[in-house]
C-alpha cells in the first residue's frame, strides 16, 4: 500500500511555486511600472520601489520567514508581571 503514494511526489507543491493570483499580481506590478514611467522617471522609480517591496513581502511570506515553529513554546511571562508586582 505504501507504494501507491510514491507517484504523487511530483504533484507536491514547492515553496516558490506561484499561484494564479500571484502571477496576476506580478503582471499588474509590471504593467503599473510601465504606465508610471510614462509620466516621469521619479514617479516610475517610486512605483518600482513599491513593487520591489511587494515582491519581497510575498517571497518572505512564501518562504516562511518569521513563521513560528510548532515545537516552539509560548513566551514566558516576566517574573515581575503586573499580577505579582504588588506583592499580594
Structure, described:
The chain is 51% helix and 0% strand. The mean pLDDT is 78. It is flat. It has helices spanning 20-37, 41-63, 82-85. The N and C termini lie far apart (62 Å). It has 3 helices and no strands. The chain has a domain at 20-66. The protein has 88 residues and is an all-alpha fold.
Got a strand count? 0
**Structure classification:** mainly alpha
Radius of gyration: 23 Å
What's the story with the biggest beta sheet? none
Strand content: under 5%
Written as H for each helix and E for each strand, in order along the chain, the element string is HHH
- Return the average pLDDT rounded to an integer: 78
Low-confidence stretches: none
Helix content range = 40-55%
Number of helices: 3
Given the C-alpha coordinates, what overall shape results? flat
Distance between the termini: 62 Å
Provide key terms for this protein:
mainly alpha; 0% strand
How would you concisely characterize the structure shown here?
With 88 residues, the chain is mostly helical.
List the helices and strands and how they pair.
Layout: H1 20-37, H2 41-63, H3 82-85
